[in-house]
Amino acid sequence: MGDAMIQMQDVSMSYGTLNVINHLDLAIGAGSKTVIIGPSGGGKSTLLRCMNLFERPQEGEIFIDGTEITQIGKHELCRMRQSMGMVFQSFNLYAHLTVLDNLTLAPRLLKKIPKKEAEDMAMERLGDVGLSEKRSSFPSQLSGGQQQRVAIARALCMQPKILLFDEPTSALDPEMISEVLAIMRKVGEEKSITMVVVTHEMGFARSFADRVLFFDGGRVMEDGKPEEVFLHPRGERTKQFFSRILKSA
Ligand code: ADP
Ligand code: MG
To answer: What is the mean pLDDT of residues 52-77?
Structure first.
């Protein structure tokens, strides 16, 4: 098993007759920073959702830190999920809760951390994303970039081993994209956190990732260091994808 944090073995996932993950074997190393790119509809979100079993594949095994999560019961899965944070394109903050309550809810409810302790940690994480002064604001009172920074801080409050990002900047205005990417870079300096990021930000991917996967048609079509995948893509589909992206840039 080596030191894989996420290991997928012969995983297949379909929605009805539509096959979205196709006999996938994939190992993500502990502490690694992986960027997944690929065309819309290629199955990237489904792949991330399989990693924490938000989506249950019909075939195959998935191991998280050595535990086969496709075998364990509900209770243990719930505990495993606490070590896996997810950040979504649409932020998914609780609209009726303040920023501080958004950050303390899961630690208090799931980890039974006392209020004061949870709030102290939340304020530290808010400081990390530069939003200490927004502790009493509601999500609707924040910009998109600020909401996403809060969502990242919230994920960090669970002290995750794994952070999954599904197009975290795709809903943001251009000037806010860089502030969110900067926070992700900072989080990435934490060597112990395994990060898997689906993004179309190629510049970020090149400088941030130690591994880039091109995912399309339910399969990994390219897999390598950023410079290998970006400068010397092997597949025709990858070349086409890049030339389309470059044209639209
Ligand atoms: P990507 O994130 O790369 O754009 P997705 O994983 O969202 O791709 O989707 C892959 C395919 O699966 C698409 O054809 C999409 O329409 C389909 N799909 C995604 N989620 C569902 C669902 N819950 N039910 C049915 N089809 C879905
Ligand atoms: Mg998607």
So the answer is: 96
Closest C-alpha among 106, 101, 100 to residue 123? 100
Q: How many CA atoms lie within 13 A of 115 on its CB side?
A: 1
Pocket test for ligand 1, best of 36, 46, 86 (most atoms within 8 A of CB): 46
Query: Which atom belonging to ligand 1 lies closest to the Cα atom of 38?
Result: 3
Confidence of residue 249 (pLDDT cuts 50, 70, 90): low
- In ligand 1, which atom is closest to the CA atom of 16? 25
**Ligand 2 center–CA 117 separation, angstroms:** 35
pTM: 0.96
Q: Which residues line ligand 1 (CB under 6 A)?
A: 15, 18, 20, 38, 40-46
| Protein residue whose Cα sits closest to atom 19 of ligand 1 | 46
Write out pLDDT tens, residues 155-203: 999 999 999 999 999 999 999 999 999 999 999 998 899 999 999 999 9
Q: Measured from the CA of 215, which atom of ligand 1 is nearest?
A: 3
Determine which of 8-12, 179-183, 232-236 has the lowest per-residue pLDDT on average: 232-236
Q: What is the pLDDT of residues 15-64, one digit of tens each?
A: 999 999 999 999 999 999 999 999 999 999 999 999 999 999 999 999 99
Q: Which ligand is nearest to the CA of 217?
A: 1
